Amino acid sequence: MKTISIGLLGLGTVGSGVVKIIERNQDKLIHQIGCPVRIKKILVKNLNKERDVEVPEEKLTLNPADVLDDPEIDVIIEVMGGIDETRAYLLEALKNKKHVVTANKDLMALYGSELLTVATDNQCDLFYEASVAGGIPILRGLVDGLSSDRITKMMGIVNGTTNFILTKMSKNGSAYQDVLKEAQALGYAEADPTADVSGLDAARKMAILSTLGFSMNIDLADVKYEGITGISEEDLVYSKRLGYTMKLIGLSSRDGDKVEVSVQPALLPEHHPLASVNNEYNAVYVYGEAVGETMFYGPGAGSLPTATAVVSDLVSVMKNMRLGVNGRSAVSPQYSKTLKKPSEVKAKFFFRLHVKDEVGVLAKITTLFAEHGVSFDKILQLPMEEEHSSEIVLVTHRATLENFEKIQQKMNDYEIVKEIKSTYRVEGENGK
Amino acid sequence: MKTISIGLLGLGTVGSGVVKIIERNQDKLIHQIGCPVRIKKILVKNLNKERDVEVPEEKLTLNPADVLDDPEIDVIIEVMGGIDETRAYLLEALKNKKHVVTANKDLMALYGSELLTVATDNQCDLFYEASVAGGIPILRGLVDGLSSDRITKMMGIVNGTTNFILTKMSKNGSAYQDVLKEAQALGYAEADPTADVSGLDAARKMAILSTLGFSMNIDLADVKYEGITGISEEDLVYSKRLGYTMKLIGLSSRDGDKVEVSVQPALLPEHHPLASVNNEYNAVYVYGEAVGETMFYGPGAGSLPTATAVVSDLVSVMKNMRLGVNGRSAVSPQYSKTLKKPSEVKAKFFFRLHVKDEVGVLAKITTLFAEHGVSFDKILQLPMEEEHSSEIVLVTHRATLENFEKIQQKMNDYEIVKEIKSTYRVEGENGK
User: Fold this and answer.
1) What is the ipTM for the molecules in this complex?
2) Contact B351/B231 with Cβ under 8 angstroms?
């Protein structure tokens, strides 16, 4: 009975989890694939670092070639992160006919298409379940579970840091900066949280999800994204009052051949399945033409959850090795993409405005919307402490993004509008 | 380019959906498998019945042999339901080297192990994703997505009829019989709803889920089940008041090698992910040692949702045909089962009692629990309209099922206890 040998690139949070799961669940792995699995060599940056797992010293190396060029190593597991250097390593591994499992969303969002082509050319598997939504098997859900259906919409809470922050802000009425500090102290946010709070991390994941879900090559550059740094406590209070929950939503939608992929804070009706996804949890809501609404929920990060996805990919690679069919399961995108123009994107919008408290103000504003064909679902007008001012909060019916942009531009020229405090999309009504 | 030919057994609700999806999504299917798929022959009971899809008359047959013995047919899709006759058909199909996709939970819960063995012996695939939770790809989630992990608990809302009924009873304060009639009128409940409301349907699904999730042969006979017919409006009112939601929960839990599989109405904390699964929707909550909490949510029944699962299985069969690896993906159960005894099952319990309103009643009752080592989480005592009576509602801390059964027996002998109105398990606290 041959032993399958693994080379590990990186031994940080996820890498330690991978080592633990392969050790602990060796029996289950053997039962499924018929032979033992061992980690042969691990590329690290520092040989003497204190780590969360015990690994014999002779397995560690500082030299990538010890992992990438060892002919005994069958599968490379990449959990080191990074983009350019990592890409070079994985290309070399694939050219050396090693299968690859990666958890690297940054890399897959930018170079996924290239890496998958090289993998197929070399009859190698390249799996990346862990790159989106940690422990949730969502990529398999799209590729296998819903292989017969055509997806029309995906909405993802795919960044745990921002979901933790928004949950705490909503529940405790705390300010963004305070909750960010708490998240950093708990390890849910990094010292430099920019990639998370700007929406970039979620945008990478939505590029990967959309490519698979819509069977089109969606690049990171196709994803418009906006983060959570501008969300105020007032926005959350009004959202709740109107029956909505604020979430950072990765949104992919398709009408026929045209798609929109974006990331932004959005308001969801309280009864929407995503609205109760709280704290650091992730979930991906998928709408298919035939299946209707489905949702996949679970931990979006963390050592063992993410490692579960990595090792499950490894099991798939090893099953394919046993059957001799590696490198033959990837399906290339079926459709060419056409991104929607702002005149083709339709949504409901939430506006919060500070206006002068004068006769006819509401009439002027509602007329402006009416002139652009936009009607209202909800309107609140409230006096403000500041003299001669009032606050207007409104939620529109569906209209095009282009019209909302025009309305905003014109509003900026209205003397009666002191400030457009915030605008958000409202998504997920009518069960979609 | 060869065409893959399908034989369909049954053309009812799910069968019509299968025909539609194969027609509508032919392009997507061809893209994935490299050749066209057509339905060659369909076994029906009545050639002239009005149906939801148009099918050329020559494709319909009353003779099973036209489907099962046609050498051109590669894959049999079974959506006719039933047990003994259907089992015989599928055994014949497998012996004729035809791959099988089935949506039949009744059959799989009873004869799944036999059919899977025959399939493997004949190098055939036998897939049954649609048999549990309709359109939700939960079996794949367990077998592939969480293949690296060890599952310790599954809780499923796996019967849409009872979930619809309980949701309406909870939200509108309606009585069971009234809501059942509404569900029947809407097509969510059958004319004879016994299999659903008794918990039998859910028990079948839990047997299938537990076999896969725990890698043990769990038979239907191993599943203790109880339905929803005894739930009163009062029970729902008290549940809500104490912060719980009542659901019909299929429960599989494992401690080491010992398992419990059961179906019963249970109370979940309102914030539990399953608590907001409403109406006819299904969801399966899965707890894995490494991954922690995950949940798979979606439509548990319906023509197109269930057909999505069937045709996704068909895609898997056809991909395996292309690779020449059919019949080699089934993994036989790894462990032998040991069912937990009542002394090994631990849970929290909800009790609702009618008692005489006398001095010392509460003391006597709490003493009885204390004598069995059971302490309390919550207690409510309320006067009743009936003279000299009061109602006691209590929720215990965790203790063994054996002790609860003893307490109930003794309580029956207490003159002060007029009636034990209801008892329910409380599940899903502390995130598990």
Assistant:
1) 0.95
2) no
B410 is catalytic: no
Write the residue in A21, A144, A295 that is nearest to B298 by C-beta.
Answer: A295
- Residue A57 CB: number of other CB atoms within 10 A? 7
Q: How confident is the model at residue B1, as a pLDDT? A: 61
Residue A317, pLDDT above cutoff 60:
yes
- Residues in A 4-43 with any Cβ partner in B closer than 8 A: 17, 20-21, 24-25, 27-29, 31-32
- What is the DSSP secondary-structure string of A188-242? SS-SS-HHHHTSHHHHHHHHHHHHHHHTB---GGG-EE--STT--HHHHHHHHHT
The amino acid sitting at A109 is A
Residue A1: predicted pLDDT: 61
pLDDT of A432 strictly over 70: no
Q: Measure Cα distances from B255 to A21, B141, B214, B260 in Å.
A: 18, 21, 11, 9
Burial class (CB in 10 A: 0-12, 13-18, 19+), A329: middle
Residue A327: closest C-alpha in chain B: B323
Domains by residue range for chain A, with CATH: 4-134+303-323 (3.40.50.720), 138-299 (3.30.360.10), 346-431 (3.30.70.260)
Give Cβ neighbours of residue A58 (< 8 Å, ≥ 6 apart).
Answer: none
| Whole-angstrom distance, CA of residue B119 vs CA of residue B113 | 10
Mean pLDDT of the region B217-222: 96
At B385 the pLDDT is: 84
For residue B136, give how far its alpha carbon lies from the nearest alpha carbon of chain A (Å): 7
- The length of chain B is 432
B290 → closest Cβ in A21, A129, A314: A21
pLDDT confidence tier of residue A386, bands split at 50, 70 and 90: confident
Place of tokens 């209707």: A292
* B 89-128 residues with CB < 8 A to A: none
Residues B191-220 have a mean pLDDT of 97
Residue ranges of B for the binding site for NADP(+)?
A: 9-16
Q: How far apart are CA B206 and CA B203, in angstroms?
A: 5
Residues 6+ positions from B50 with CB-CB distance below 8 Å: none
What mean pLDDT is reported for chain A? Answer: 96
* Torsion of Cα atoms, B174 then B179 then B181 then B185, to 10°: 130
What single-letter DSSP state applies at residue A149? Answer: S
Q: With beta carbons less than 8 A apart as the criterion, state whether B286 and B141 touch.
A: yes
Contact at CB, A331 and B31, closer than 8 angstroms: yes
**How far apart are the CA of B149 and the nearest CA of chain A, in angstroms?**
6
Burial (CB count <10 Å: 0-12, 13-18, 19+), residue A2? exposed
Q: Once rounded to an integer, what is the mean pLDDT over residues A119-144?
A: 97
Rounded Cα–Cα distance for residues B392 and B362 (Å):
8
Residues B301-316: what's their mean pLDDT? 97
